[in-house]
Structure formats: structure tokens, C-alpha cells
Specification:
Strands 3, 4, 5, 6, 7, 8, 9, 10 and 11 form a nine-stranded antiparallel beta sheet that branches. The protein has a two-stranded antiparallel sheet with strand order 1-2. The longest helix has 9 residues. 12% of the residues lie in helices and 31% in strands. The protein has one domain: BH3618-like (Roll), CATH 2.30.290. The protein contains three helices and eleven strands; from the N terminus they run ββββββααβββββα. It is mainly beta. The chain is globular, with a radius of gyration of 15 Å.
Length: 147
């Protein structure tokens, strides 16, 4: 499928990268159709709205930057998007890239949970108080390199 983006123009997205988020993302509930688009800068990926070319979110696999990250989500919640097995789950978190030169952060408190089999997703709020909405990505990667 061809998807129009603001920054990359028109990109061709494989069908298995099309994603439905029935409830939308927090603050963007009216947008439910998205595509996962590869980013030139690894390990990031774009979540591009297929309905609004100006709406895209940068995502990262949180387990790459936070080794002890956990998502304790109720099975009833996971069932809403058809998840039955742990192997069906893909977890990604939204990244903020500030304009003022501050470090990039990711929202570990509100991950995006995706069913890899049917490509349905939902954003959840975790109950664990140790997770933050402003987890410093670069600081975490530097700590990992220092090991």
C-alpha cells in the first residue's frame, strides 16, 4: 500500500506493516489506521497515520534501551486485540525528540501493544510507578555501552 508521509513523501508499505489501533492513541483517538514505516535511523521505526500524512510518531523497542522493562498487562486487556500467546506481542514506545536540544526520551509508562498476528494494537497505561514518560534513551544506551 502506498502511504503519504510528510517527511518521506510517498512510501510503499507491505500489507503486514499496516496496523489498526481501534481506540487510537491517547490524544489522537480519531486516528485508528497506521503503518509501521522503517526509519533510516536505527533502532527507530515510524508509526504513520494512513489517514493524515502530517501525523506520525517515532517509536522504539523499549527492551533495547531498558533491560529490566516489563509490561504487566491483564489478559482481559490483551484479549481486546486478540492476543492469546506471549509470542503474539510486540511492544513499542513513543519517542519524543525535543526541539531545544534536550535528550530524546521514550514513554515507558504508556507503551503501544501490538498483536503481531492480526496487526491490531492499543496504547495502555502501566500501573508500575517506576516507569516514566520521559526515559532518557541516550543515557540508557551509554550505560549499556559502558558494561
Amino acid at each position: 500500500m502506498e502511504v503519504k508521509t510528510r517527511t518521506m513523501g510517498i512510501v510503499n508499505v507491505p500489507e503486514n506493516h499496516l496496523l489498526k489501533i481501534p481506540a487510537g492513541l491517547f490524544g489522537f483517538e480519531e486516528y485508528t489506521q497506521f503503518a509501521l514505516v522503517d526509519c533510516k535511523t536505527k533502532p527507530f521505526v515510524w508509526l504513520q497515520s494512513t489517514d493524515n500524512s502530517d501525523l506520525a510518531f517515532l517509536l522504539i523497542d523499549p527492551f533495547l534501551v531498558c533491560e529490566d522493562y516489563e509490561t504487566d498487562i491483564d489478559d482481559k486487556e490483551l484479549a481486546k486485540i486478540g492476543i492469546k500467546e506471549p509470542s503474539d506481542v510486540l511492544v513499542l514506545t513513543l519517542v519524543t525528540v525535543p526541539n531545544d536540544g534536550s535528550p530524546e526520551t521514550t514513554n515507558l509508562l504508556g507503551p503501544l501493544i501490538i498483536n503481531k498476528k492480526n496487526m491490531n494494537g492499543m496504547q495502555v497505561i502501566l500501573s508500575e510507578p517506576k516507569w516514566t514518560t520521559k526515559f532518557n534513551i541516550l543515557e540508557a544506551l551509554k550505560k549499556q555501552e559502558g558494561k
